[in-house]
Amino acid sequence: MRGEVRAIAPLYTDLIYSGFDALPELGEEVYTRAFDLQLGGGAAAIPIMLSRMGLPARLGTFLGSDAISRLAASLLEENGLKQYENLYRGEGRPVVVSTVFSYGGDRSFLSFGDEITQADLADESCYAFLKGAAIAFAPQGRPEVVKKLHADGTVLLYDIGWTPEMKLADYKDILQYVDFFTPNEKEARQLTGEETLEDALRKLGEAVKTPIIKCGAAGCIALDGEKVLRVPAVDRFIPVDFTGAGDNFMAGVLYGVYQGWPLARCLQMGNVFGGYSTTQPGCYKAGLTLLQAMDCLQYYDAD
Questions:
Q1: Distance CA 251, CA 270 (A)
Q2: What is the mean pLDDT of residues 1-28?
């Protein structure tokens, strides 16, 4: 495949505290045994990770003139992504700041941001940035933009966040044009009203070309035509923090798509990216390289 992978996404800066026994009570101060400052996850992880792997990737994002925006820009370049465009023209503080309390697997957050997202862009600006991409992360709430990108021949991946009222019918205007849709187990069940993952998968398949359900430590399942693919996770990884695992999974899948691999192999690479990312706190700290990814991919060939 030729061309860039593109996404429009806000940036997050994560202040990650780990190695503590309890959060402070009022008036108390607690020192943690570890701290890190990183970019957070979200759709921005796709161009960041794929750029690391040597693919042409570009991010459209939102940066202000404030100190946090300058920090986020420096962290982008520290992570190897120099191909990004600032789509923000306002005076606010568009980068979200999150304080992350990592409990050795699970985590909790305190976050602040001015809630400036791609929704603040006109459809024309959104399409102009994504037009010409080989693969794009489909923008949320933009059915006309997604329709145009589909007509252009752009391969589209779509993902959503959890809401308790989510229904499949609410997304059909976009899903009909999407190539890959990647909800997690909880989202898939809520969207479809189905209890079993296979039933949920087949229900999703009525709305989208290739549904993929992320199953965490169990790997993932996907519908390839009429065939259900079950791809277990790589069990050699020792998880420390699950922040950004789903975002890394999507990047791994798209790496395989870009290379023209069969769907099963793309899912295996997704599991490698996602699983490896859990071995260190945060979305990018594990520092997966292409050589390491290809080595881990051999886990599946040994079966």
A1: 7
A2: 92
